[in-house]
Specification:
Low-confidence stretches: 4-35
Helix content: 10-25%
Number of helices: 3
Mean pLDDT: 79
CATH class of the largest domain: Mainly Beta
Order of helices and strands: HHEEEEEEEEH
Radius of gyration: 23 Å
CATH topology of the largest domain: Immunoglobulin-like
Shape: globular
Largest sheet: 5 strands, mixed
Number of domains: 2
C-alpha cells in the first residue's frame, strides 16, 4: 500500500512538471516551430524610389540557427550612368498590428561591406545586417534614402513622394509614422 502511494505521488509530480504545450503539439511541431521563429506570412516590401539604385531580394527575420539575432539580407543594382560611392538603406519595421517599431539603417560604402570600391553602372551585389537580439517584426519596408555618386552629387529622397509611394504599395498600413531613419543607439 505504501509503495502505491509513493508511485501515485511521483506520477502526479511528474505530470505537473511536464510541459503541456509541447506534449499537445507533439515533438515534430515543436521542432518545426523552433527552426522558424518568425511570423508565418511576414512581409518584406521594397519601395524603389531612388533613380540610381534598385533594391531586390529583401528578406528579414530572426536567424533560425542563432535565435538571438535579427537578420536582414538585400541585393542591389546600380541603375544609373555613373559609379556609386555610397548609399543608405532604411528599413521601416512594423509589428503584427501595423504599429511602427524602431527601424534600422545602414550605409553601403561602394559594392558591399567587404568591397569599398565604387559600385559601377549595371553592377550588382548583396549584403546584410545581423543585430543583437530578436525582434517581432511582421512587415519591413526597405528603401534607399540617400545616394552619393562618383561626381560627389548627393541624391536624397523626397519624404512626401516616399509616403505617396508607400500608400500605393501598402494601403493596409494607415500610419507609417516617421519615415526618416531612427537614430542609432548611443554607446553607454
Amino acid at each position: 500500500m505504501h509503495r502505491s502511494r509513493v508511485l501515485v505521488i511521483v506520477l502526479g509530480f511528474v505530470s505537473v512538471l511536464t510541459p503541456r504545450v509541447a506534449v499537445a503539439q507533439g515533438p515534430a511541431a515543436f521542432e518545426k516551430a523552433s527552426r522558424n521563429p518568425n511570423y508565418p506570412g511576414h512581409k518584406p516590401i521594397i519601395v524603389n524610389v531612388c533613380p540610381f539604385v534598385e533594391l531586390g531580394d529583401f528578406s528579414f527575420g530572426n536567424n533560425p540557427v542563432n535565435h538571438d539575432r535579427f537578420q536582414t539580407n538585400m541585393s542591389w543594382k546600380n541603375i544609373g550612368t555613373q559609379p556609386l560611392t555610397a548609399f543608405e538603406i532604411v528599413i521601416l519595421k512594423y509589428d503584427a498590428f501595423d504599429r511602427r517599431l524602431t527601424g534600422e539603417r545602414w550605409t553601403v560604402t561602394g559594392v558591399n561591406s567587404a568591397d569599398w570600391r565604387p559600385l559601377q553602372p549595371e553592377a550588382q551585389s548583396t549584403d546584410g545586417t545581423i543585430g543583437l537580439g530578436t525582434e517581432e517584426v511582421f512587415t519591413a519596408i526597405a528603401y534607399v534614402r540617400t545616394a552619393r555618386l562618383a561626381d560627389n552629387t548627393v541624391w536624397a529622397v523626397n519624404d512626401s513622394q516616399l509616403i505617396a509611394e508607400l500608400r500605393k504599395v501598402i494601403p493596409g498600413i494607415k500610419d507609417f509614422g516617421d519615415v526618416k531613419p531612427d537614430p542609432k543607439a548611443k554607446p553607454q
